[in-house]
Amino acid sequence: MDFLNNILRFPLEELPFVLIVLVIAFTVHEFSHAYFAYKFGDPTAKLLGRVTLNPAVHFDFLGVLLLVIAGFGWARPVPVNRDNFKNPRLMGVVVSAAGPLSNFVLGIIGALVYAILIATGVLDGITNERLLFAITTFLRYFCFMNFFLFLFNLIPLPPLDGYRIVEDIVPPRVRVKLQQFEQWSIFIFLLILFIPVLQMYTISPLYMWANSINYQFVFSFLKLFGVSI
Q1: Main subcellular localization, coarse class (predicted)?
Q2: Which of 41, 83, 104, 227 is 20 to 30 Å from the Cα of 209, by its Cα?
Q3: Is 30 annotated in the active site?
Q4: Residue 122 in 3-state DSSP?
Q5: d(CA 125, CA 181)
Q6: Which of 30, 129, 167, 182 is catalytic?
Q7: What pLDDT sits at residue 38?
């Protein structure tokens, strides 16, 4: 057990809740990409069965494993053919942004549910400690992980959504130059993974910002419900 706690990013007793949250967050994220791509005229994801909320088709074992161990990861990317869009660059930005924004919305929903349970006294009324632990742990990770994935996926490195957004915004000549460096992206992620100093200035701040966003929404909702903090 000590060995697992040493290599995992999250406490072992909380890992089941982390995995459940990741399944939901990744599924909604990839579904959002696929849905908007299909609605904008690209049938690629639809033909591959990706316009679905079935977690099995979006699951990437390595991506989830890295997130559990290193603190960052991914699901199976949704293939998008921008040539099928009427306005490839604009619609490409929307499709790329749909995934992170879906996580942001999920985080807000989780914060709202958490605030409602506090404001109505439901959490205070739960006497079963294990049940209380399960509910609070799930909601805490649900909010935090979705806000983290929102921030993480906006990093402008391939294959993340932030890079695809930048790729669609910049002029074509700049895009060609950017594409020359895509092959090095995996090495950049490995450097972040194995060099603590780099992680301190890349992934760690995202964790702090995700926590901050989470607290701000929960506190704002509690204030809205008339609950003093």
Answers
A1: membrane
A2: 227
A3: yes
A4: coil
A5: 55
A6: 30
A7: 97
